Model the fold of this input.
Amino acid sequence: MNPMRNVPEPVPEVVAAPAGAPVASTRVPSRLKGKLLGGYYWGTGRRKTSVARLRVRPGTGIFLVNDRDVKAFFPTPQDLFDARAPLAALQAEGKWDVFANVNGGGQTGQAGAVRMGLSRALCNADDTVEPVLRPIGFLTRDSRMKERKKYGQRGARRRFQFSKR
Done:
C-alpha cells in the first residue's frame, strides 16, 4: 500500500524465462569471489577497522590506492614498505598492476589491510606463492582490535581517581 494515498500499488507482472535460458545476475557467485573476474584477481584485506579491496593484474607496476599513487597515499616509509611487502617478498615489483580501495581506520591499519589484500590477490593469481607468503605472516589476519570503554571508567582500563579519605 502506498502510505500517502492508501491506494494499493500495482504489482508488476512476472514473466518466466524459457527453460534453459541464461539468467543475468548482478551478484558475484561465491565460487568466483577472489578469483579472476573482469581480467583482475581480487583480494580483501582487513586490519583493525580498515578494509582494503584490491584488484591485481599482470602489468607494468602501477600501484594506486584510492586513485592516488602509493607513495603519495602512504608518505611514511614504514607504511609504504608494509603496503608493498608482498611484492618485495616475491621479487615481483614491476610485474603486477595493483588497484586498491581502502576505507576506515588510520594510516597504519590501512597499510596492513593493503598488505593482506595484496597477498590474498597474489595467491588467487598463482597458487605457488602461498608457501612463500604464509610463513612470513602476510596471509594471517591480525585480530587485535581496540578494546571497548567500560561504564564506570574513563576508558577501556583507566579508572577514575580513587580517594581513600
The CA atoms of residues 153 and 163 lie 15 Å apart. The mean pLDDT is 87.
